[in-house]
# Entry
Amino acid sequence: MNDYCTPENVCCATDADLARLAKALGHPARVAILRLLITRTECVCGEIVHELPLAQSTISQHLKMMKESGLIQGEVDGPRICYCVNRAVLAQLKALIAAL
Amino acid sequence: MNDYCTPENVCCATDADLARLAKALGHPARVAILRLLITRTECVCGEIVHELPLAQSTISQHLKMMKESGLIQGEVDGPRICYCVNRAVLAQLKALIAAL
DNA sequence: CCGTGCTATCGTATATCTACGATGAACGAT
DNA sequence: ATCGTTCATCGTAGATATACGATAGCACGG
# Structure
């Protein structure tokens, strides 16, 4: 919406980007999901459900949110859907945070 | 609440920490505020209100949230309150993100 | 003491998040 | 074609976030 830009503080479409990515990590379950996807270098589908104490629909919602943020990608693999980290976006997040 | 720990994924009180800090940056206004506090190395009070297109009460709420997350500190300076970045916590956030 | 400027908080309204069960859609196997 | 598996979506409920105006508290200057 607003970008909170000011004349003296030349910004930075990255404010919204950073906020969006940070929000995607703003819940412990999503942090856990991201870690899971990172450790399992391979894409992982709904075994995430078996790792976290949450209902399948709730996990699906978190995955959707993370996918919309760009942090995660999902690819159809037969009956199941394999999720994997979008390394480029994760790198962007790291860069944005490190640049603070 | 839950820490989503699993036997195979030895974690990590840092899941909750990371989520809390990420959430504190999960809104464009708060990113803008953090940037403002970083550039003005000096502590800054409510001139933040003049930089962002938000009401004073809204800014105060964001500041409260950021203060509760630990990212920010506020010190009373006469009639006004000077906010400054908690460098240690910011460094912790950077480390947690970089470690992903 | 009294006003002024600066913040925090309250009250409120709307929107989004979080979580669950139930249902639906897609696919492979029988 | 039918079943079971896998995942997304719907509907719902309660909690939290976002934003504002109004009000209250505090410190300083007159």
About this structure: Residues 27, 29, 54-58, 61-62, 65, 76, 78-80 of chain A lie near DNA strand C (CB under 10 Å from a C1'). Residues 5-11 of chain A have pLDDT under 50 and may be disordered.
